[in-house]
Structure formats: structure tokens, C-alpha cells
Design a protein that fits this description.
Elements lengths: L1 H8 L6 H13 L3 H5 L3 H20 L13 H10 L3 H11 L13 H14 L4 H26 L5
Helix pairs in contact: 2-8, 4-8, 5-8
């Protein structure tokens, strides 16, 4: 009899499709997926931490990463920046004055020259490396939040 009561009290497992929406919401705004799942305190803390880290990165002259085929790790850094969702667009606009994800291959291309000049100006800033670290950390934290939301939504975590 106890087994029957326990089986009825356990919530049914959620479908994987229902776990995708909170992940997308978290990508759009850190903490939003947790809010939708009813974790209000977590949502507020996570949103504050990621936004503060992102803001410190921008305030410290951090730069959004662009893909440069000659630097293989630039692919990972750009992917990390993309994890911030729409916040990545803000960082790119602030860094380059436009939305750009890849440096032109031709060294003499005026667009490449303009983009690298803007990056060089940031590199001269004393806090540039700290800013980059904060921006990359914000992206990694948001990736972890998406995984956390997926685990909660799929019933693997409470």
C-alpha cells in the first residue's frame, strides 16, 4: 500500500521539449528560465551576478571576441560570448561600433584595419585583460545557468 501512495505522490517526469523553453529564456536574459520554473530567489541572484560580471567587463574595457582563422582559440571565445544572448550584441556594439563576428581575411581590407585599430585601442587600456576575463566569465556562467535550468526542467534537479 505504501508503494502505491508513493507512486501517486511523485510528479510525472517532464518531457525534454518542455526543458528547451527555459533554456532559451535563460539565454535571452540570465535568470529568466529559473523565474519561469518558480525559482525566484535563484533567478534574482543569477541575473544579478551575470549582469554585474558583464557590466564590470564592459566598464573595464573588455572586448567581445571575433573569429580570426589564424587564432583557433578565437572560435571558443566567440562561442562563449554568444552564450550571453542579446547582451553579446551590446558588447560587440561597444567594442567595434557594429555587430561583427569575424575579421575579414584580407590584411589590407579597410574593415579589418578599422576593427583591429579599435581592438588595439582597447588593448592599451590597463584593465583590458580584466575586462576580457569578466566578459568570458559572464558567458560561461550563463552556459552553466542554461544547464542548471535544463536539469531543473527535466526533473533531474530540484
Amino acid at each position: 500500500m505504501t508503494d502505491t501512495v508513493l507512486e501517486q505522490a511523485a510528479p510525472p517526469p517532464r518531457a525534454a521539449a518542455s526543458a528547451v523553453l527555459p533554456c532559451v529564456l535563460t539565454w535571452l536574459l540570465p535568470g529568466l528560465g529559473h523565474l519561469v520554473l518558480g525559482c525566484k530567489r535563484r533567478a534574482a541572484v543569477f541575473c544579478a551576478v551575470v549582469l554585474l560580471t558583464f557590466g564590470l567587463g564592459l566598464a573595464s574595457d573588455g572586448a567581445a571576441s571575433v573569429i580570426d582563422p589564424r587564432q583557433p582559440l578565437s572560435y571558443l571565445a566567440t562561442f562563449d560570448n554568444l552564450a550571453l544572448g542579446p547582451l553579446d550584441l551590446v558588447a560587440r556594439w561597444r567594442t567595434f561600433g557594429r555587430i561583427v563576428y569575424r575579421l575579414p581575411a584580407d590584411e589590407g581590407d579597410p574593415v579589418r584595419v578599422a576593427l583591429t585599430d579599435r581592438l588595439r585601442a582597447r588593448v592599451r587600456s590597463v584593465t583590458y585583460e580584466y575586462g576580457n576575463t569578466f566578459l568570458l566569465t559572464a558567458g560561461l556562467m550563463n552556459l552553466l545557468l542554461m544547464l542548471d535550468v535544463f536539469d531543473i526542467a527535466s526533473g533531474r534537479k530540484r
